[in-house]
């Protein structure tokens, strides 16, 4: 074997030269050129994607305060997490917020898109009115709504009073603070609405007409034709907003000063993570939380896929 | 079946067609059914009022006196419009500086984003090379990666580089591409007929020249969309400035307003809201100037090719 190796190598080289040296050179050139063009992203991926991803997993098994190098502690961080009541609160707050917000956002955005997907006047005006909040800075949104929800001088409770309801304390009341965040999130459904609107416009007209001829009423056509046709887009938008909702941070940071008040009722996983990392400088413990957050996001994404599997229509 | 379809299209709606349930008449186009039209406009109108109220509240609050701020029921139109609240922002905090800082970060990020993402997207869309599709799969996978998983090591990397309390952690990554923007631009580059680039290649043009002179001009609308989205993302960013900028003279507008809110609290809400209004204005202006491109960009991002 070893004795033959040089012979084999030279034979291989000979055939290569014989058959396809030009091909190989071109192939190598193409690879080089392609990698050269995507190199900015590739460098970014390695330096600011892969490396931090792996390091974050490593940190989660260490005690690390940034002042001294990380010290290996095995599963201690995860064991601590299992008994951490505030973390359990944060996980349940995040799931509660994400499920409620994503469900209501989907229903509201799809409904608005359906209303706009008709021959109506002022369509451009309505579209602008619904879309504009989506591009507004989140900090500005949070400050505006902080004042909207003010129980004693805010708009929300004054409207409720006008219809005879004694409004709650909203962000000052532990049982109404998360619903307040959900209501605020509904102000930013414009992006989802636009995507649904485009999807609705892609529903083939003859399909709807055929259903109508077959005697399907408005609701049945909605349920059996329109919804199946837009369902892949709904899944895509839904998963994207679920991932974002589970990382809710800025709104809570601004509206509660990063505390998750009142009574930890708005303490989201991302907020607790930030507190652990940048107020207590416990980077190892925070990394363990980040990995649990990642697993939580993956789990809820998989559940969403599973639940929707039978209802999604991927064309034929 | 075909006959009936044609029939349905040609005949006036009043002519009954085979099995037809009574509810059906209502859903055939708004214009022909006034009652339905009223309902649609009523619902849209109520929603529009709901969506516009926070803007009105923002403007109204930013022009109030401290007394009006706490009034119940709320005052919508202040007795005297206190434009001085806007001047107060500049007296209380270095707001001009916040604006300048935000402009520096945003403009640099937009430049970095356009330079890097167009080149990378071209490499994925218009060049054929071994390994391309695998790497593109990796790029798509990174779209789903939550930012909170990597931010602690990122912070330590930037700390080791001595970049904390500088704008570099906010700007440099934009020069290294963004998976979402690459994905978006690639869709546009792919629409360019390969014959165009091949013709230039036969003429002996280098790949860089083909990219700059053939491909790039053809995807200009998409580049505008990406630049707009990056502008909005950088202008609105809060988390990045929050963790990387510690010196208040380096704050961005968003970070500045958030810290105003937590420092000065409720009794100063008028001028805090005036600052908020000023942070929103550039985005609103940009929105109205470029609404068409923005809507196109958002729509395309959802209907992934």
Structure description:
The complex is a heterodimer of chains A (316) and B (305). Chain A is mainly α. Chain A folds into two domains: 5-43; 78-311, Orthogonal Bundle (MetI-like fold). Chain A contains 13 helices and two strands, in the order H-E-E-H-H-H-H-H-H-H-H-H-H-H-H. Chain A has helices spanning 5-59, 76-82, 85-116, 123-135, 138-148, 155-162, 177-186, 190-201, 205-213, 218-245, 250-256, 269-278, 283-308, and strands at 62-63, 71-72. In chain A, strands 1-2 form a two-stranded antiparallel ribbon. In chain A, helix 8 (190-201) runs antiparallel to helix 10 (218-245) and helix 9 (205-213) crosses helix 10. Chain A is globular. The mean pLDDT of chain A is 89. Chain B has 305 residues and is mostly helical. Chain B folds into two domains: 2-87, no CATH class; 93-264, Orthogonal Bundle (MetI-like fold). Chain B contains 16 helices and no strands. Chain B has helices spanning 2-10, 34-62, 66-69, 84-92, 95-125, 132-143, 151-160, 168-171, 179-189, 194-202, 207-218, 220-236, 239-244, 253-264, 269-289, 291-302. At the A-B interface, helix 1, helix 3, helix 4, helix 5 and helix 6 of A face helix 1, helix 2, helix 5, helix 6 and helix 7 of B. Chain B: Keywords: Cell membrane, Membrane, Transmembrane, Transmembrane helix, Transport. Chain B: It is a multi-pass membrane protein. Chain B: InterPro entries: MetI-like, MetI-like_sf.
* Approximate helicity band of chain A: over 70%
What overall geometry of chain B do the principal axes of the alpha carbons give? globular
> What is the name of the CATH architecture of the largest domain in chain B?
Orthogonal Bundle
Rounded radius of gyration of chain B (Å) = 27 Å
Question: Total number of β-strand segments of chain A?
Answer: 2
Beta fraction of chain B: under 5%
Structural class of chain A comes to: mainly alpha
Q: What is the count of distinct domains of chain A?
A: 2
Using a beta-carbon cutoff below 8 angstroms, give the protein chain pair with the largest interface and the number of residues from each chain: A-B, 105 and 110 residues
Report strand order across the widest sheet of chain A: 1-2
Low-pLDDT sequence parts of chain B: 1-31
Question: Under the CATH scheme, which class of the largest domain in chain B?
Answer: Mainly Alpha
Q: What's the name of the CATH homologous superfamily of the largest domain in chain B?
A: MetI-like
Q: Termini separation of chain A (Å)?
A: 55 Å
Mean of residue pLDDT of chain A? Answer: 89
CATH topology label of the largest domain in chain A: MetI-like fold
Give the radius of gyration of chain A.
27 Å
Largest sheet of chain A: 2 strands, antiparallel
Keywords (chain B): Cell membrane, Membrane, Transmembrane, Transmembrane helix, Transport
Family (chain B): Belongs to the binding-protein-dependent transport system permease family.
Protein name (chain B): ABC-type glycerol-3-phosphate transport system permease component
Subcellular location (chain B): Cell membrane
């Amino acid at each position: 074997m070893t004795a033959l190796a040089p012979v084999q190598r030279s034979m291989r080289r000979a055939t290569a030269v014989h058959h396809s040296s030009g091909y190989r050179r071109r192939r190598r050139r193409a690879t080089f050129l392609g990698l050269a063009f995507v190199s900015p992203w590739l460098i970014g991926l390695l330096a600011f994607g892969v490396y931090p991803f792996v390091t974050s997993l490593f940190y989660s098994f260490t005690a690390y305060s940034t002042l001294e190098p990380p010290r290996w502690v095995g599963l201690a961080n995860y064991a601590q997490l299992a008994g951490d009541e505030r973390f359990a609160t944060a996980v349940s707050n995040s799931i509660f917020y994400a499920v409620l917000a994503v469900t209501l956002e989907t229903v509201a955005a799809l409904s608005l898109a359906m209303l706009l997907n008709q021959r109506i006047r002022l369509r451009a005006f309505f579209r602008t009115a619904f879309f504009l909040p989506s591009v507004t800075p989140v900090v500005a949104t949070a400050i505006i709504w902080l004042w909207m929800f003010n129980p004693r001088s805010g708009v929300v409770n004054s409207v409720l009073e006008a219809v005879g309801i004694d409004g709650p304390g909203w962000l000052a009341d532990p049982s109404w603070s998360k619903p307040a965040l959900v209501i605020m999130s509904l102000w930013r459904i414009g992006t989802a609405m636009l995507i649904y609107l485009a999807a609705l416009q892609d529903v083939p007209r003859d399909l709807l007409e055929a259903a109508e001829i077959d005697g399907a009423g408005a609701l049945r056509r909605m349920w059996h034709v329109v919804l199946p046709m837009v369902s892949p887009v709904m899944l895509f938008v839904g998963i994207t907003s679920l991932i974002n909702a589970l990382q809710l941070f800025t709104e809570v940071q601004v509206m509660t000063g990063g505390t998750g008040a009142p009574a930890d009722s708005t303490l989201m996983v991302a907020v607790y993570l930030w507190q652990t990392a940048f107020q207590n400088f416990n980077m190892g413990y925070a990394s363990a939380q980040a990995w649990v957050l990642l697993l939580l996001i993956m789990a809820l994404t998989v559940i969403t896929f599973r639940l929707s599997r039978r209802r999604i229509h991927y064309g034929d | 079946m075909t006959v009936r379809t044609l029939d349905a299209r040609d005949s006036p709606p009043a002519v009954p067609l085979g099995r037809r349930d009574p509810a059906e008449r209502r859903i055939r186009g708004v214009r022909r059914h006034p009652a339905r039209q009223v309902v649609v406009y009523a619902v849209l109108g109520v929603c529009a009022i709901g969506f516009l109220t926070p803007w009105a509240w923002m403007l109204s609050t930013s022009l109030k006196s401290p007394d009006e701020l706490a009034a119940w029921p709320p005052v919508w139109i202040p007795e005297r419009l206190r434009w001085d609240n806007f001047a107060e922002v500049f007296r209380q905090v270095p707001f001009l500086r916040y604006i300048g800082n935000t402009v520096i970060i945003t403009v640099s990020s937009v430049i970095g984003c356009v330079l890097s993402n167009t080149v990378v997207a071209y490499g994925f869309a218009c060049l054929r090379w071994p390994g391309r599709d695998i790497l593109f799969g990796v790029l798509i996978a990174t779209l789903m990666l939550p930012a909170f998983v990597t931010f602690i090591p990122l912070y330590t990397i930037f700390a080791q580089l001595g970049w904390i309390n500088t704008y570099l952690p906010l700007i440099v990554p934009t020069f290294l591409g963004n998976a979402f923007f690459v994905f978006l631009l690639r869709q546009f580059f792919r629409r360019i007929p390969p014959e165009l680039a091949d013709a230039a290649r036969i003429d002996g043009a280098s790949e860089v020249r083909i990219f700059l002179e053939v491909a790039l001009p053809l995807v200009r609308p998409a580049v505008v969309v990406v630049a707009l989205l990056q502008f909005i993302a950088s202008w609105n960013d809060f988390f990045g400035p929050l963790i990387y900028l510690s010196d208040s003279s380096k704050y961005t507008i968003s970070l500045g307003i958030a810290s105003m809110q937590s420092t000065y609290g409720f009794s100063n809400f008028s001028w805090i809201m005036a600052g908020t209004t000023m942070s929103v204005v550039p985005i609103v202006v940009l929105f109205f100037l470029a609404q068409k491109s923005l809507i196109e960009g958002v729509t395309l991002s959802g209907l992934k090719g």
